[in-house]
Amino acid sequence: MANNTDYLQVLWKVKYSDLALSSTILIIIGGLVGILGNCSVIICYFRIGKCGERYFIPVLAAVDLVACITSSIFYVMDNTFFFNYPYDSMCRILTFLQLLVPGTSASLLIIISVQRYLLVCKPLGSNMTLRWKRIAIGVACLFTFTCSAPVLAISGIKTSNETYQNHTIQITVCKFSTAETSVQNTVYFGFLLLLTIVSILVTISLFIPVLKKIKLTFLGKFRSGRKASKHRNAPHATDSVLTKDKEQKYEGKTTELQIQDKSSSNQSINTSSTMKGDMYINKPVNTFTTEDSERTRKEKATRKITVMFFVIIVAYVSSYIPSLIILILVYAVDDLQNFISVSKDAAFVSTYLARFVFLNHIVNPFIYSYFDPLFRTELKSYLRRQINTGWYRMINKKLSHSWIEKMSKYI
């Protein structure tokens, strides 16, 4: 038993101690950043009230918040008890949540893609109402829960005897599936893999026409803006010609006035008013109404929110693909399933890439703060209010404390 413990410690120190330490530090930092960021998103959008096109943002932030908490616990537990995982029930629950929460996030992004597609590409058609948004969220959560539920039965801790440096050591690890390879497990894992690939492809395919529409709209407005600027800059020559014509008309009419009887004051007044009317015939009229301004403002807001969701989807796809590749390799290459024979470098690369999906739940608050000025303004206001309140409480506490000390001298 002593030899078993000694060689298990040797294996830990040689191959996995550095990996566990670095990964744990990064996971804790990322988890804290993600928790603070997603909490700020939920608080700010709750204070904003009616979110409109931003309806899915606080929902997605709530899912990311749960993911930051559960994933941090799962990864830290896995790093701490890499070869001697203590609790079977905790392994099952955390593994289930590792599948449920990211799956819910992916389902929400599909719903967001559908909503943006209907809003941008089919503006005259039927868009998602508040009722349908809620129904879609409920269906997505129920579907993801149904797909993830079997993990509660097949996951858990598994104890096995392995050989390291010609010595037999006993390890206990938390695994996605404790059973040996079977037809049922293979079908289930294949279904999950296919579902992940399909969700990524559907999300991308729905957003491609949205981006094309936004690009065409932007180019159309850019070209019309260039034409308008050319029209404003070009008429200098024609303006000078019109001015000369008006001066000639003015001179002619002045000559006629000199020939006519100077006593007819009413006639001269009418003639001068006619001349002023000629001077303002070609003056441009501003037809840009407040309704046009409001419509332009809404179009810009829609375009900006759509680009923001596109960046979120790019972050989602970029974080899921490395994890998906590692998942395929782990089940396709037998050597990667063996924690003992795999090299230290391979363990580093495979572990970090497998956990790359964790970044998806951390970066979204930064994307919101960059693209959404409403959230940025509310966040600044909230932080300023909290800082001012904190300073006020601290000063008030100090003043009250000094007042108590002064009063105690007289008691």
TrEMBL record:
Database matches in Pfam families: 7tm_1
- Any Gene Ontology CC annotation: plasma membrane
Q: What is its main location?
A: membrane
Q: Where in the cell is it found?
A: Cell membrane
Q: Check the record and name the SMART domains matching this protein.
A: 7TM_GPCR_Srsx
The transmembrane residues are 20-48, 55-76, 96-114, 135-157, 187-211, 305-332, 352-371
Q: Which membrane topology describes this protein?
A: Multi-pass membrane protein
Q: Which UniProt keywords apply?
A: Cell membrane, G-protein coupled receptor, Membrane, Receptor, Transducer, Transmembrane, Transmembrane helix
Q: Where is this region: Disordered?
A: 248-275
Tell me where on the tree of life, at the top rank, the source sits: Eukaryota
Low complexity composition bias: residue spans: 263-274
InterPro entries listed in its UniProt record:
GPCR_Rhodpsn, GPCR_Rhodpsn_7TM, TAAR
CDD domains associated with the record: 7tm_classA_rhodopsin-like
Which GO molecular function annotation, any one, does this entry have? G protein-coupled receptor activity
G-protein coupled receptors family 1 profile domain location: 34-368
Q: PANTHER family from the xrefs? A: HISTAMINE RECEPTOR-RELATED G-PROTEIN COUPLED RECEPTOR
Q: What is this protein called?
A: CCKAR
